[in-house]
Amino acid sequence: MRVYISADMEGITGLVDAEDVQPPGRDYERSRGMMTEDVNAAIRGAYDAGASTVLVNDAHGPMRNLLPDQLDSRAVLIKGRPKPMGMIEGLTAEYDAALCVGFHARAGVLGVLSHSYMGHEIEDMWLDDQPVGEIGMLHAAASSLGVPVALLTGDDAACAEMTDWDATVRTVPVKFAKDRFAAELVPVPDARATIEATAQLALRNLPERPRADGAAPRRLAVRWQSASVGSHLTAIPGVKRQDDRTVTVEAPMIDLYRLFNLFLRVATAVTSNPPYC
């Protein structure tokens, strides 16, 4: 069994603030170890369930957060950026399951460190007219490849968001949002034990593989804070401006995901995006 892990940081056990998840925040270096240990728990669960291969993609911010010397040595790590596929770099139809570790709720939801990809710069996103963030985009992309998402860990808002997309995905809330930068925390040993046990359970009881629909067109709409971003993105063939700050594009899901990663690079260049917190 081949298992893919996309690891974000905002939904990691114990982390609640920008100082925890953004370099050079005062707790960022400590948080890198916290992130690595949550991922290690998922890796242990995967191998306990019979995994033959585990690929981990560091999917947060600079994408060089995980500590390679502390990561379970049985796993292979993709580290650094840019990556054409961003948070799903390395995911192919050859994988039997995808696990999401440390994820957060989309922009506009009252969850811990909630946002969609670029903090304040992306105000909202819709996939086929359904509100979407990083969770929904990953789920849609994996499903288009025929790869089931088996597990998500994060705060309770992130877990609820995943359940709205797919109730068969097992979720592990490691904290309960009190506000965007405050949470009631699950004790660290308990959170990691639950991640490990739930990853094992999820992989031993995988749902039926989704029907790969890689050629089916999907429609993505993104509303930006800056009208300048929308204007620049219309230089990309197929991108249309719905209004001054909202652009739309249609493409098969994997192409759409790759194209959206190009959107992020353009937006970063245009806005010199400040920290989202």
Q: In percent, how much strand structure appears in the residues? A: 25-35%
CATH superfamily of the largest domain: Dipeptide transport protein
The counted number of beta strands is: 12
Helix and strand content put the structural class at alpha/beta
Question: What's the order of the H and E elements?
Answer: EHHEEEEEHEHEEHEHEEH
As for the CATH topology of the largest domain, it is Rossmann fold
What is the count of distinct domains? 2
Assign the CATH class of the largest domain: Alpha Beta
State the low-pLDDT regions, or none. none
Cα separation of the termini? 39 Å
The share of residues in helices is 25-40%
Q: C-alpha Rg, in Å?
A: 18 Å
Biggest pleated-sheet summary: 7 strands, mixed
Silhouette: globular
Sheet with the most strands: spatial strand order: 3-2-1-4-7-8-9
- Tell me the CATH architecture of the largest domain: 3-Layer(aba) Sandwich
Total helical segments: 7
Give the integer mean of the pLDDT values.
96
Characterise this structure:
- The structure is a single chain.
- The protein is built from 7 helices and 12 strands.
- It has 277 residues and is of the alpha/beta class.
- The strands form 2 sheets. It has a 7-stranded mixed sheet with strand order 3-2-1-4-7-8-9, sandwiched between helices. The protein has a 5-stranded antiparallel sheet with strand order 6-5-10-12-11.
- α4 (156-165) links the parallel β7 (149-155) and β8.
- α2 packs parallel to α5 (188-204) and α6 packs across α7.
- The radius of gyration is 18 Å and the shape is globular.
- The termini are far apart.
- The model has no long low-confidence stretch (mean pLDDT 96).
- The active site is at 115 (nucleophile).
- InterPro entries: DppA_N, Peptidase_M55, Peptidase_M55_sf.
